[in-house]
Amino acid sequence: LDVKGTHTEPRPAQREAMRALTEKHAEKDLVLKVSTGAGKTTVGLLYLYGFMRVSGESGLFLCPTVQLVDQVLEEAQRLGIRARAYQAGETYPAQECVRGDAVLVCTYEKLFNAKSTFARTDVNLIPHAVVLDDAHAGVENIRKQFTLTVTGDAYKQLLAVLAPACRAYHMTKWIDIENSDPLALLEVPHWIWSDNQAAIQPLLHSFATTLGFMFVWPYLRDILSLCRCVISGDSAEISPEVLPTEQVRAFTQAQHRLFMSATLADDSLLTRELGVASSATSNPILPPSDRGLGERMILAPSLVDPNLDRGYVMDLCADLSKNYNVVVLTSSGQLAEDWVQKGATYFVDDTFAEGVRKLKDSHSGLRFAVFAQRFDGVDLPDDACRVLVIDGVPYGSGLVDKVDSEMTVTPGGTRNRTIFRIEQGMGRPVRSHADYAVVLLSGTDLTTYVGRKDVLSAMTHDSRNQLSLCVELADLVRKGSASGNPDAAIRQVISQCLQRDTGWKNYYNHKIRDVAKLPLAIDLARINLSAQERQAYLTASNNNFVDAVTGLNQAVHEANLSDDEHGIYLQRLSRIAYLADPAEGMRMQQSARERNRALAIPPALPRRPALPGGKTVAEKVLAWYNKF
User: Could you give the CA distance from residue 245 to residue 111 in angstroms, rounded to a whole number?
Assistant: First the structure.
């Protein structure tokens, strides 16, 4: 390769990753976990380049955002590898990419949509090898592409179809929905959803060519009964329980797929949602020389003093922004507006890229910015962000996410997605091993959430250690502010990090960097359960509901789940079982509700009439014993 001077030699972690990929080159699916800034983009490009040289076929590099597409193209140029972007609106990919002479680079949305140009008969491109960068972020992007948002006339007609049954199921919630209450939210019970398919399917199909439907409806029309439907006061959301990515030939039929990720200890989500082979998620490639994350001082002012709430953090950041770039990540535009009152600039949707560019430009004058629903895909290295704020627990923006967040735990769903957003968010300002930043956790809901044992156990080793250090720092600050001025103590600690105090750096190295890394704990039972759940939905999508229930039911009972989780899985089983045997489906729903009170309440089952002269089970057993 005709490489630039900066890329003449691979780093030790890159060399180890490439050696492992070479040893496993025959396998279809591989998972590579490398810390941010360790050079995984280079590894991904070389992985594709190798397969393209050997096979003479195309290689595809997928990214979560357009900004990351540009970064991949820049990295390819430094490596001397030809690469071309496949942009939104472009019908045909570059010919050199089709021939396998250049890497094709695009966003997840370009591939995963029901009108994807990859699937056009005059393109019909199935790459030989695919790299999925930031794979966990990619899952979120892909789920959006498989989720149908229903508004306007379609929403009104859907409400009319569901009204009789939903009003009878939960009258007060339905009244709020009909009154367009913005806070009203109801997940349509799966039996009501199934019973009304004959009316719902043609209704939704009549909108198939409209802008909001055309890119999603073809994915859902044949599996509609296996989807969830959540209704609010102004819209509805229809989303598959498990992503039907098998419908995307360019993804499913690729000979080799590399899933690259920097975060999350739990990769079962990749198996459940993307169909990644269990052998890959059970044995991820972990380069021994990976030096981990950069330096993050995580502070939670509310742990120091409960009075140092969200308002305090806002005032503190307004002061800090006079000397350093401060970036705030929130879950909604409504929360973002509060920061605008304190002097922050809010970059909405289309202006997001402009905000990132200005933060990186030291002459732009921008020092205080806020983004909503941008916990991944934002690279803010070095001075672009020295202070980052995560404002409250980062729940998703979708209706299904909001319903799931009300459950105590959603396996493979909200809990892991929320943890993922927190970890991704905390990693935005630290983009290499040498980078540093202060991360402020705003709100007692967030500090309480990250303190939970089950949440910490699902995080990476580095994140767990840094959050433990966060608690230690809170204790130190509290003791240091015994004179009664916790604000001054917090500001002093922040100053030690930002002004590169030697004492702080030594303390951080002792607590985080010099600690022996534990081997990654891989939950094989969880991965197996995810694989069984995906297989169950694939089987059910072929109308084989009995076999689907049997396989998943066994996996659920072997997984040793808590009551809450067990209940959620039983409700998923109930959805499938109901399509073959409504009575059995309702019995499963009753068991689910008994284990988790946040789930849907099934209708009362009619009691089976006793047969004349029938015996109890005990009497039958005794009669059998007495034969001997």
Answer: 11
